[in-house]
Write a structure and sequence with these properties.
Blueprint (H helix, E strand, L loop, with lengths): L1 H13 L1 H10 L3 H21 L2 H25 L4 H27 L1 H4 L7 H27 L11 H15 L6 H43 L2 E2 L6 E2 L5 E2 L2 E4 L2 E4 L27 H5 L1
Antiparallel strand pairs: 1-2, 3-4, 4-5
Helix pairs in contact: 2-4, 3-4, 3-5, 4-8, 5-7, 7-9, 8-9
């Protein structure tokens, strides 16, 4: 991951003149995002037609736009909440277009015979799982951010996925009978699902710690009711119609603790109220 980050930083330095030109021309970040998405959709269509080499170059253009729109937005002070939402939404469209194009490519293998016939159906299944996994990686992060948790974890995130979906295909096409492309698709699907599980586990650990702190704070601040084994936090005692269960008996929640200490129902001879009169429990039975 550190190597990928280093490569990304170097690529940004190479693109610095392009960023300067876009800023000088007043191109908006959302326009760059839109252009990149359109390029990706076109690349997905080229994948579907079986022109893997050219599709890799076109999809690679969208990866460049992913770097340009954020850089232009930051340098011009045009970052916005809607811009982040718009970018994230179009990213999902782009992912669906590329993976959908690959799914069509593998499904139409009987026409162009670019890969072994026996791998056509298995690869369609792999791509469908990859589509679900790629959408879940984005959804789990967005849902976590809605809970106030930054779940930016995972073995492979979107920039790396786009690089793997474009660069090897641009340079190698269907090398080795398509096994290079098929291997990359399998790697993308497996790593997408690993990322999903990593984010779910991360959010689980964070929320469990938060819930534990809330439980401790609630118990510490709750009023208590009298019980045979001592005072019990009122918040943890079962309630029914304004009553609290103390020593297996329901007592009014607002009753004084001393009145809750009633003799056990099994002691019939000692069951008396404080006035010495027979308890209503006796007459009820």
């Amino acid at each position: 991951m550190a190597l990928l980050q280093l490569a990304r930083s170097g690529f940004q330095r190479v693109l610095a003149p392009v960023v300067d030109f876009l800023i000088w021309r007043g191109v908006s970040p959302n326009a760059i995002t839109t252009f990149g998405t359109v390029a990706t959709i076109i690349g997905g269509g080229i994948y579907a037609r079986g022109h893997i080499h050219w599709a890799g170059w076109v999809v690679g253009l969208s990866a460049i736009c992913d770097l340009l729109d954020g850089t232009v937005a930051r340098r011009t002070g045009r970052t916005s909440v809607f811009g982040a939402f718009y970018d994230s939404t179009l990213d999902r469209v782009a992912d669906g277009a590329v993976l959908g194009g690959l799914a069509i490519f593998f499904a139409r293998n009987g026409v162009h015979h670019a890969i072994p016939d026996s791998m056509s159906t298995p690869m369609v299944s792999v791509i469908l799982l990859g589509i679900i996994g790629s959408f879940l990686t984005s959804y789990t992060r967005a849902r976590a951010e809605g809970l106030g948790i930054d779940a930016r974890v995972g073995i492979l995130q979107r920039p790396e996925r786009i690089v793997l979906l474009s660069a090897p295909q641009a340079f190698f096409g269907l090398a080795l009978g398509g096994w290079v492309l098929m291997s990359i698709c399998v790697v993308l699907t497996v790593t997408a699902w690993i990322t999903v599980f990593q984010r779910v586990a991360f959010v689980y650990r964070v929320t469990e710690a938060q819930d534990a702190q809330k439980r401790v704070a609630t118990q510490a601040s709750s009023p208590t009711v009298a019980g045979r084994g001592g005072e019990v936090p009122e918040a943890s005692a079962p309630r029914l119609d304004g009553a609290v269960l103390a020593n297996d008996r329901m007592v009014p929640a607002d009753h004084e603790p001393r009145l809750a200490d009633v003799a056990s129902p099994g002691d019939l001879d000692t069951r008396r109220t404080e006035s010495g009169q027979a308890s209503t429990f006796d007459s009820a039975r």
